Amino acid sequence: MSDTQAGTQAATGPRALSRRVNVNKLLVEGRALIALAIIIIGFSAMSPHFLEPDNLILMTRHVAMNAILAIGMLLVILNGGIDLSVGSTVGVTGVIAGYLLQGANIPFTDLVAYPSVWVVILISVAVGALVGYVNGLVITRLNVAPFIATLGMLYAARGIALLITNGETFTALRGEEKLGNTGFLSLLAGTPLGIPMPVWLMVVFAVVFSLLLNRTAFGRWLYATGGNERASELSGVPVRRIKVLIYVLAGFCAATVGLLLTADLPAATPRGGELYELNAIAAVVIGGAALSGGRGTIRGTIIGAFVIGFLVDGLVLVGVSVFWQQVIKGAVIVLAVAVDQIQQKLQKRREFKRAAASPPSTPAPGSDPALVGSR
Amino acid sequence: MSARRDGAARENAPLPDDVVLRAVDITKTYGVTQALKGVNFEVRRGKVTVLFGENGAGKSTLMKILSGVEKPTSGHLELDGEVIALESTTHAVDRGISIIHQELNLCPNLNVRDSIFLGRELRRRGGAIDYAREGEITREVMARLEEEIAPTTLVSDLRLGQQQVVEIARALATDARILIMDEPTSALSAAEVIVLFKVIRELKAQNVAIVYISHHLEEAIEIADHAVVFRDGTLVATADAADIDLPWVVSKMVGRAAEYDFTGEPREHGDLALSIENVRVPDQDAGGRLAVNDVSLQVRAGEIVCLYGLMGAGRTELLEALAGRQPVAAGRVLLGGQDLRPLSISQRIAAGIGLVPEDRQRDGLVQLMSVGSNMSLASLRSMVRSWFVSRKKESADVGSMTGEVRVKTAGPEALITSLSGGNQQKVVIGKMLLTRPKVLLLDEPTRGIDVGAKGEIFALLFREARRGLAVLYATSEISEALTASHRVVVMSKGRVVREFDPRTTSREEVLAASGEPEPEALHIGAKE
């Protein structure tokens, strides 16, 4: 598989020291890529429309929202946590944007505020980050398991979205020239250079978060805490602060999707983003991340999002029934992870065999085994 | 089939009929580490076979294979002359082989009775667990061990020594024909050891074969019928008890390779680096008790101080409290005049004090990451250049430290798990040295690593000490304490009991101070 000894022993994950392409990493992501290739080839054989540019752009637009959500989810999963609340965060931030755009009553007055589009975006994103911050505090300060803490937030945030709209949907998102709050739809549902805004944002998020994970101390610390939290703590890694920050970032990603979804529909519905968290988890897992933490990449996650998105849209395109779509999607998720596990087992067995086959290193008495071959 | 033929071929040699269990050409590899290199080993009926060897010599690995915890990479086991393959510990117990593990393998949430019968519960007709019968057996075994522990006491409510008694009771309750004891006395009091030895003699009389491992050499020699010495995964010597004494065992155990002696190192110590005044650390497991009780200690720059003590003496708790892992309940900790108590772990590392932990796998390494990433983990902040970690700075720092601590690795990108224990430990030490500490704390720095690497690690520490580093390390190996330190501080039951100059101190003096049972005391107990 590899031509050098160093290559066969190279570490998984993107934090290897050099730029050299890593064999193991390719293998792990390879299976997601293979799945994607099968999906593309299979559906294009079944339907001539699958590969048409219009369809590709449409599908990628769907992929993009899940991919952005999944990037936030990846950060949490790298830490060994999980964030079940991102779908509800999508809903609550979307609703807040809709509420602000159609005019917000200022409490205890008869005044109605019409904040500009940028202020609307800022407030929505801040709310998303706040939701994540609360998650992070509950997890780190109250020692509630991430699953429980974010499950609670899943319900609470959804409830707040329903409270804000009183169960209804805001559709007046266009704004009015004289109020100076127009441009929400043209900005977020626009297609600069023919590419939809969600796709642009997906690319920006992927690049920024790749840099964050691979080049900054924060990124390295995140992988380290997911790999071994106790060892990281003893090495002076600010374990708690990292934990809070990743939930904030996951909330930030969810708010971005909330805004995109509201502009896309175009309507702010309190039910927006329901079950999105599951698609995001699926994308991360298909992309090769370990739920136990410490392993996973942005690239893999994006590929995972494409697998899920293209699969669902392809099934619709070729006319598979909605019920069967669910069954197939479930099977693909489990299969992808099962393949990963088998692959890892095989790899471990290979390593053991190699170790067993290597000549025993019996140093002469008095010699120093640790010095042999050191530089 | 071929294994069976091997067994038949061996029958040409006269077979001592009291051999119940035989290990033939056993090898075991973990990744690239060879823990056992072709070991042949016999266990005899009604006899105590004692295994000697330093940490990492392969004793525990062999015991794990004999008891079905691990499978050998090659070689096989013969029980009563018949080749067997042990699939699991339950399988081994069914065959009459039981083990008392070195590490306590108890579920703290279970009571004593349920712990003793875990995995082999007694059933009544209909399948319900026969608690009454289990409780009765538990009481019998406890009476035999002269412990007053009720069957329904929660394991978490027992002190460490009593938990070890429960482990022993678990093995006794199986009516084993072969009983393996891996460090059964590490947490026992002198009185409890005497009782255990009485029980061992009873078991011998009942024709039970016993395999015994202990770091307390005098104690092990006392109970031995046969002695077997391991070094670096190889069985290097066997002898009958009549023919062995302490010098023989020590010389066989260490061989020539371990003969490092740093007592001649210079003693020009600098300013006071670390000052601990009346420190108390509460016990994390048992509320209300103090793991460290009123300890005062001073370490100067360039000085290497060894904390010697038995398991449970409070060494680990003291070091973890100094590093910031455990809270200090009372007292002062000063690092060059700066009070450490309000600081977090990372602030303490920045201030110049860091810990190399006892359990390398659990607390020292991030197994998924490479050698280089592990080594730079604690000093990443110093490598950040305008937002990003500078690859140039990182690979330069990691490269030079790899050379300094002499890690044998395929390169900084090799997986940390591909290294041997000694090299992994050097990476952990290198990681802390990269933070440029003033004081380095190490908890059992040579645990589970081979003899050559031990000497190298101490050579490295003394070299750093000459450059002004203050070192405080904990060990339970007496030879290490006396050959690789400027000063030995003995801890017992949470207190500092004595201080010694290793140049003018005998092993016996240190052992006595630490509260190890005296060999004479064991004699007296045996005659009762």
UniProtKB/TrEMBL annotation, chain A:
Its main location: membrane. The chain crosses the membrane at residues 32-51, 63-82, 117-137, 144-164, 184-213, 244-263, 275-294, 301-324. It is found in: Cell membrane. PANTHER family: ABC TRANSPORTER PERMEASE PROTEIN YPHD-RELATED (PTHR32196:SF21), ABC TRANSPORTER PERMEASE PROTEIN YPHD-RELATED-RELATED (PTHR32196). CDD domains: TM_PBP1_transp_AraH_like (cd06579). Pfam families: BPD_transp_2. Keywords: Cell inner membrane, Cell membrane, Membrane, Transmembrane, Transmembrane helix, Transport. Residues 351-375 are annotated as: Disordered. GO terms for molecular function: transmembrane transporter activity. Coiled coil: none annotated. It is a multi-pass membrane protein. It comes from the Bacteria. GO terms for cellular component: plasma membrane. Residues 355-375 have a biased composition (Low complexity). InterPro entries: ABC_transp_permease. This is Erythritol transport system permease protein. The keyword Cell membrane applies.
From TrEMBL, chain B:
Pfam families: ABC_tran. GO terms for molecular function: ATP binding; ATP hydrolysis activity. Residues 21-257, 274-518 form the ABC transporter domain. Residues 507-528 are annotated as: Disordered. InterPro entries: AAA+_ATPase (IPR003593), ABC_carbohydrate_import_ATPase (IPR050107), ABC_transporter-like_ATP-bd (IPR003439), ABC_transporter-like_CS (IPR017871), P-loop_NTPase (IPR027417). SMART domains: AAA. Keywords: ATP-binding, Cell membrane, Membrane, Nucleotide-binding, Repeat, Sugar transport, Translocase, Transport. It comes from Nonomuraea pusilla. PROSITE patterns: ABC_TRANSPORTER_1, ABC_TRANSPORTER_2. This is Monosaccharide ABC transporter ATP-binding protein, CUT2 family (TC 3.A.1.2.-).
